[in-house]
Amino acid sequence: MIIKAGFWSTALGVTALLFAIGCARPPKPGEPLRGLTRVQRDRFDRGRLVFTREFTPETGLGPLFNAVACGECHEDPASGGIGDEVEIHAAASRPDGTCDALTDLGGPVYQLHVTPALKAALGIDEEPIPSRATARARRTTPPLMGLGLLDAVPDEEILDLADPDDRDHDGVSGRPNRSPDGRIGRFGRKAFVPTLREFNTGAFLFEQGVTSPDQPVEETVAGTPLPPGVDPVPEPEISGDDLLLADAFVRFLAPPAPERPAFSARQGERVFESIRCVSCHRPWLRTGDSPVRALRHKKVGAYTDLLLHDMGPDLADVCLGLATPAEFRTEPLMGLRLRGRFLHDGRAATIEAAIRLHGGEGTRARDRFAALSDSDRRAVLEFLGRL
Fold it and tell me: Could you tell me the CA-to-CA distances from 186 to 160, 202, 306 in Å, in that order?
């Protein structure tokens, strides 16, 4: 089924209505979803402690890592937000068009720091990228607020938005990525990870070198076994209970509420729709059934379809799963105003620069934006700057 955008009531309008009728204020960045039970709120608070805990080599850090705590990267403007760290990914595109994520050689994430013990043993300062890699990529820290809601969106809703053959000839042909076992992906810049639990568990391993009951893997340096004695903590290096608490913290983080809209922002919202940015940045998704009432059957102002879109050769970097080097998941725009850099690698210093760098399936919308009057273009940017 192909669903193309018609008229949408967006998150800005809903926020204005809430203020107008005197409802309770929306959550601030770093606060939990409204409607959690007392037990869920307790797990959120305890999970924050795990999320901000700093690991050391003696408690499981590394020996390869990008950060010593989840909260080291996800810190601005609150725990679960963004950070200024940029990490390195690498992969290889095979001649037959399939993707080699280099998992047998330490990929696809290559860590930028090592513990003193590993440096002393191998004389390295970071994990080397193997020669088999055909491309590398830079990745900025993604915000985590609201991801529990995206995790609760049914697969069917994502598939309903897909149009891989562009049957309506609008130049937009989103398609889902899939994990190796065929499940639909939705997390990560290439939408490769199917569930938030796997995304969080992977972050402990790939970003901190901390193994867990979910991923009790044998750690290596670019596929080579670790030298004896450099990783003294037995696996798993984080308990299953702590892993579940950290997952609860991320899962229950509320999405940032948009700022109250001015008249020009409302005009920008209408122009944003008229130039068809909403063909990919869908203003609303709906969650399905969930054991958590705060996640059940909610309308989420996420501005994404969670699908892959070809963004053109200028943005292309690495493949991952079914995603070609030029394909990226539509970036959710909730909380856009809280970010300081834009696009997957942070190359754009402003929202306008990010729009002008869209290529591939984003070309038509980019060109319509460029053709707007100065006042309409400013209105679009004000609208986006309030999300």
Answer: 14, 14, 6
pLDDT in tens, the chain (387 residues): 344 444 334 445 444 433 333 357 899 999 999 999 999 999 999 999 999 999 999 999 999 999 999 999 999 999 999 999 999 999 999 999 999 999 999 999 999 999 999 999 999 999 999 999 999 999 999 999 999 999 999 999 999 999 999 998 999 999 999 999 999 999 999 999 999 999 999 999 999 999 999 998 889 999 999 999 999 999 999 999 999 999 999 999 999 999 987 788 899 999 999 999 999 999 999 999 999 999 999 999 999 999 999 999 999 999 999 999 999 999 999 999 999 999 999 999 999 999 999 999 999 999 999 999 999 999 999 999 999
What is the C-alpha to C-alpha distance for residues 157 and 155, in angstroms, rounded to an integer? 5
Give the separation between CA 360 and CA 205, rounded to whole angstroms: 34
pTM over 0.70: yes
Which pair of tokens denotes residue 223?
A: 């596929």
Instruction: Check residue 22 and give left, alpha or beta (phi > 0: left; psi -120 to 50: alpha).
Output: left
- SS in 3 state form for the chain? CCCCCCCCCCHHHHHHHHHHCCCCCCCCCCCECCCCCHHHHHHHHHHHHHHHCCCCHHHCCCCEECCCCHHHHCCECCCCCECCCEEEEEEEECCCCCEECCHHHCCCEECCEECHHHHHHHCCCCCCCCCCCCEEEEEECCCCCCHHHHHCCCHHHHHHHCCCCCCCCCCCCCECCECCCCCECCECCCCCECCHHHHHHHHHHHHHCCCCCCCCCCCEECCEECCCCCCCCCCCCCCHHHHHHHHHHHHCECCCCCCCCCHHHHHHHHHHHHCCHHHCCCCCEECCCCCCHHHCCCEECCCCCCCEEECCCCCCCCCECCECCCEEECCCCCCHHHCCCECCCCCECCHHHHHHCCCHHHHHHHHHHHCCCHHHHHHHHHHHHCC
315: closest CA among 303, 333, 327? 327
User: What six digits make up the tokens of 202?
Assistant: 């992977």
